[in-house]
TrEMBL record:
Biased composition (Gly residues): 249-272
Keyword rRNA-binding: no
Composition-biased stretches (Low complexity): 273-282
Record's protein name: Mandelate racemase/muconate lactonizing enzyme C-terminal domain-containing protein
Organism name: Rhynchospora breviuscula
Length: 813
């Protein structure tokens, strides 16, 4: 056999030719006569008995993507023309990061409406399968199903109980009785049956064609339903109309994970909720804490970050027990601001809500910067604050302040004093949530401990509104550019390519791939080419550059805003028209075929001169940013800090081939330097097996140095933090404050040199530190990270930053 099948390269078989055509008899060698007999009957049936009349003219098929690189995977799907793809994963010798990159490339090729399946051929154990399926489900924007994640039927059943993605059985079904065993153990939602002969128990033919799909029911388990996503699930992956939304027997409850409350990840708790939240002898605080954790788990929570505190102890114990039960991953931090940004990173990387828990008082106030960033970036962060009973507010009681409305304008507060108050809980999928829980003493659970409650089958979550978007038209003709801001996604790239327009994509847009991406757009917007722009189609949240801001504010430019799915982003500039994400291009006027070519030609010329200038500088800020961008492999992740690093990367970062996108994230909601290391750690934790990098300046690094304080039991993901250390705030040198008129006060007010020994700081937190003195040393450090969290420091000069920025701008003059 040229293609290995289930580990087999040689197989015997027999072909039968009869009046009806050819039949094949090729049982596996381990089959005895009674098992092989139905295979022979099936072969004779195919050769001698006429086929029934056709009931359809066409049969939908999927394209199969082998365990190849993301670039080839993208081409296979594009060339295949199918709307469904089955992607091979769990290949020996490859990592989960390889699988994630491949699935992301397939999703990009299919677009939001295609269906993605993955096939592991039994390559995982239960623990690895649960982790991988959840990560792949996020990367795919919703999997239709996962095929044969583990080898045994018992393990399939265990995985099916632990994940929301439907499970398909393939290799587990080799004999005629196997489908019944799969059904009886509740091991699969879909059974792929080969030629099993006639089904003697039902007196009707078995499946003839290998690969036929048979939907199974396990007892009274309802048909699977999809949990709403920040990105839309694949078409066809939603719960069928009329299917009851009950939980899986014996597993994590599905309540609230299907279509749920408005804007919520299925978290609106109806009056009919029947979850068991009390235990004999448990205190009121313990029962309330367990109810809170149950509702959050039902809302799709997989990670929770906590800071130690006394008032929050009931919630902490509940989270600890949920982790022991395998329903939650718990992360502990000693600083509330650091913890909140860790939760932010986990939420950005996983597209799921992530609570961060603290005690009462100033601890809750420390969450505020992360809550603000989440509000402006549309991240599902849950601020879970413990509080004293309401009767103690305003009395001067210890560690008691008014926490209701603490994050006013960013997150509304649900003040919870009893379990019934949780009926109003909605955990948003594109905004932060504040859950303030009043806890009275005693604050420790009963001695018998607690098993996380299992939701009742009588749960009745409210239906989520239909998010189907109607197709809207954008006319071709005017000289148009596509601006892709933060979190714009691949849709911006696809629109630019379909229309033949230049793509001006920020590094964290998720769109910076393909041949339409203009790397030096910030410089070109200040030339006569930029002055010719007549229309801008803007996606995402562009905040990075003043040239783009000026372009969007021009009176002679029409601005068309494409809203994200499910929300209307408000723009700080005039908008002529707002359209939905489904766009149809209409040729209504003469188009300029040379428009894109002019941008490409000018960009290529400026890139050549810019690269020469960067090379001339040696180990400078732009060179560091360029090398980090080049070091990223498909599937790797990069978190970029605010200030100069993200702008330097914007100028020199490459546009990768379509299907080989590297995931670049940044906190661009408010573009602050807060919590960047913590965010990067959170992002890295959501993608085990992949390498994550962070690129940031020294002030940003020092601002969140506490993120390196990790307890011995806390996971240390593969994260290389690259610090461009110029001993101060060089961003201000290129702004108005850096002009010669303000030189006497500049260093004290804006330059702020600190002289900190980063190596000593890293040593204090047991964090490996490497200082590079040249570009070859930097390339070597980036090419061979040592695993875990490590810091790579590149010392660069700051005195000539203003002059360097001027030389860069002069490249287009």
């Amino acid at each position: 056999m040229r293609t290995r099948f289930r580990g087999i390269t040689v197989r015997e078989g027999l072909l039968l030719e009869g009046p009806a055509g050819w039949g094949e008899f090729s049982p596996f060698l381990d089959y005895d006569a009674p098992v092989a007999a139905p295979w022979l009957l099936a072969a004779r049936e195919a050769a001698y008995e006429p086929w029934p009349e056709a009931v359809r003219d066409t049969v939908p098929v999927n394209v199969t993507v082998p365990a190849t690189g993301p670039g080839r995977a993208h081409r296979i799907v594009t060339d295949g023309g199918c709307r469904t793809a089955k992607v091979k994963v769990a290949e020996p010798g490859q990592s989960l990061g390889d699988d994630l990159a491949r699935v992301e490339a397939v999703r990009d090729a299919l677009g939001p409406g295609g269906r993605v399946r993955v096939d592991a051929n039994g390559g995982w154990d239960v623990e690895a399968a649960v982790e991988a399926v959840r990560a792949l489900d996020r990367a795919a924007g919703g999997l239709e199903y996962v095929e044969q994640p583990c080898a045994s039927v018992e393990d399939l059943a265990a995985v099916r109980r632990a994940v929301d993605v439907p499970v398909a059985a393939d290799e587990s079904i080799r004999r005629a009785e196997d489908p019944y065993r799969v059904r009886d153990l509740g091991a699969a939602d879909v059974a792929r049956a080969g030629e099993l002969g006639r089904d003697r128990r039902r007196r009707r033919p078995g499946r003839r064609a290998a690969g036929a799909a048979l939907r199974l029911r396990a007892g009274h388990r309802p048909a699977p339903h999809r949990r709403p996503r920040r990105r839309p699930p694949a078409a066809g992956a939603r719960r069928p109309a009329g299917a009851p939304p009950g939980p899986r027997p014996g597993g994590a409850g599905a309540a609230g994970r299907g279509p749920g409350a408005t804007r919520g990840l299925g978290a609106a708790a109806g009056r009919g909720r029947g979850a068991r939240v009390s235990a004999p002898g448990a205190s009121d605080a313990t029962q309330l804490a367990r109810a809170v954790l149950t509702r959050l788990l039902d809302a799709g929570v997989e990670h929770l970050v906590l800071c130690p505190g006394s008032r929050s102890a009931p919630l902490a114990f509940a989270a600890y027990d949920a982790e022991r039960a395998g329903r939650l991953r718990l992360h502990t931090r000693v600083d509330e601001r650091t913890a909140a940004f860790l939760a932010l990173g986990l939420a950005k990387g996983s597209h799921r809500p992530v609570p961060v828990l603290c005690t009462s008082g100033t601890a809750a106030a420390s969450f505020h910067p992360a809550v603000l960033e989440a509000a402006h970036a549309g991240v599902p962060l849950v601020a879970l604050t413990a509080d004293r009973p309401a009767s103690l507010r305003g009395t001067g009681a210890n560690q008691t302040t008014e926490q209701v409305g603490l994050y006013a304008g960013a997150a509304a507060t649900l003040d919870v004093a009893a379990v019934a108050d949780l009926d109003a809980l909605v955990v948003h999928e594109d905004a932060p949530t504040h859950l303030n829980v009043q806890l009275a003493e005693p604050l420790v659970p009963d001695a018998l401990g607690w098993s996380p409650p299992t939701p009742s089958p009588t749960l009745d979550p409210r239906e989520r509104p239909d998010r189907a978007e109607k197709e809207e038209e954008i006319a071709l003709g005017p000289r148009t550019v596509v601006v892709a801001g933060d979190d714009a996604g691949p849709a911006a790239r696809r629109l630019a390519e379909r229309a033949g327009w230049p793509l001006l994509a920020e590094p964290s847009s998720g769109s910076r791939t393909g041949e339409n991406a203009i790397r030096t757009y910030r410089l070109l917007l200040g030339t006569e080419l930029g002055e010719q722009v007549q229309r801008v189609v803007v996606l995402g949240h562009p905040t990075l550059s003043r040239p783009v801001t000026r372009l969007l504010a021009r009176d002679d430019v029409e601005v068309v805003s494409v809203r994200a799915r499910g929300r209307w982003p408000r723009r700080p500039h005039p908008v002529a028209r707002e359209v939905g994400p489904e766009v149809r291009l209409v040729p209504t006027g003469p188009d300029d075929p040379a428009w894109l070519a002019q941008w490409r030609e000018r960009d290529a010329d400026v890139v050549r001169r810019l690269d020469a200038l960067v090379d001339e500088q040696g180990l400078g800020p732009h060179a560091v940013a360029r090398e980090v961008g080049l070091a990223l492999a498909p599937g790797d992740q990069l978190v970029v800090g605010a200030s100069n690093p993200v702008r330097d990367l914007d100028l020199v970062g490459p546009a990768h081939p379509v299907g080989e996108r590297r995931k670049v994230l940044a906190n661009r909601g408010l573009a602050g330097i807060d919590g960047t290391i913590s965010t990067a750690i959170g992002v890295a934790l959501t993608r085990p097996g992949a390498q994550t990098y962070a690129l940031l300046g020294d002030v940003t690094f020092l601002h969140d140095a506490g993120a390196l304080v990790l307890g011995p039991d806390e996971p240390r993901p593969d994260l290389a933090v690259v610090v461009v250390n110029d001993d101060g705030g060089s961003i201000f040198a290129g702004l108005e404050q850096g002009a010669a008129d303000y030189a006497p006060a500049f260093e004290r007010l804006f330059g702020t040199p600190h002289g900190t020994d980063l190596a000593a700081l890293c040593a204090a937190t047991r964090t490996p530190h490497w200082r590079v003195e040249s570009l070859p040393e930097l390339r070597q450090a980036l090419a061979s990270p040592n695993g875990g969290v490590e810091v790579v420091e590149a010392r660069v000069g700051r005195a000539d930053r203003r002059e360097l920025d001027a030389r860069v701008r002069a490249l287009v003059e």
